UniProtKB/TrEMBL annotation:
InterPro entries: DUF1501, TAT_signal. This is DUF1501 domain-containing protein. It comes from the Bacteria. Signal peptide: none annotated. It holds the Pfam family DUF1501.
Amino acid sequence: MNKLPELQRREFLRRASAVGIAGTAAPWALSLAGIGEAAAATTPGDYKALVCLFMYGGNDYGNTLVPYDATNHAAYAGIRQALTIPRDALAATALPAGTDGRQMALAPQLGKLKGLWDAGKLAVQLNVGTLVQPTTLAQYKARSVPLPPKLFSHNDQQSVWQASSPEGATSGWGGRLGDLFMGGNGTSTFTCINVSGNAVYMAGKQAVQYQVSTSGAVPINGITKSLYGSAACSTALRSLITADRAHWMEAELTRVVKRSADAQATLSTALAGVPAFGTTFETTSLSTQLQMVAKLIAARQALGATRQVYFVSIGGFDLHDLLATQHPLLMTQVNDAMASFYAATVELGVADQVTTFTASDFGRTLTSNGDGSDHGWGSHHFVMGGAVKGGRYYGALPSVSVNGPDDVGQGRLLPTTSVDQLAATLATWMGVSATDLPMVLPQIGNYSQKDLGYF
């Protein structure tokens, strides 16, 4: 028997599953691999969700977590020049001093996150970034160990953060988490949900990201309402695009369309049953994305979900200029959106079952280019949730210096914690076994510490 058509079909499915179609056709980015819908086999109430908040452009770590003790703030000001946040502006967001006497403060706009820190619901992961294996400064300079490909490149480092591979990767670690959990969800389609478009982070080997808008499921135009004012036309279109086909590619497309239409109907019905929140969300894009995540979590039982991975994002962080004026605005949006989302999880009674973490292409230079900062490497990130052992730092606090022991030049931090370690910690909390971790994170075997202790 000639197996070429089947091999072609498998390759088509493999490639198509890696990329969701954006825009009005977004629901077509559904599971092309023909995943069977499995009944959930977990106990009632056994639910967990992981939410990735990606800051596109490379967040400036120097003005997110700021040296506050007098000595280190003076060193910071000498390096940052016009980008410096005055010390008196940091008093309200100052964090407790460490045993070494060093003290840090959150950006002044992160007051609500400071409240979550104080409540033990927010932690800071220090100097985390893309690595292949633990790397010292001497090894970096000698190029004696493998390094992440195409360092300081936006597209590639976004992909390495999300997928452990440069641009062109076909699956990300969020999607690979979905691969392990989708069989335990009543409807596998709703395992990986993206509220911000498309991201390789959410593509699995089998799981495919289901894309929604901030208003909910995106319908296939023409079949969910009258077409050209005619219900008959709408019915005819539905029949045309869902009719059985003989050719394998046409048959696959038909199956995707049917699945998309069914998912849209299921999700719309589930969301219609979600009552209004008492929590107030802001009208920014990031807040409305997280509000939709909260609604989807509220609808988890109607969707048959026990494990879910979500993705939201905010752009504008590539601040080579105007950093002093634009970065505070972005911090305000992150502060408000994360705080409102956490409050919504409390309202829903699932705060201990939802963990949110921030990510970004890379950090930026501690040095100023005059009006902004340039592409860097390591950065500081937040982990938030009711299960998080918050109110503390994880990892090593870098020195406030240029060309010092912690950076590769211009205050570009050499990461002391890898994205793989952060991801492994989150995956373990989700329920991934040590045996299955390499399926999610192929390079995790390079690290002796695989759980950073957030939970």
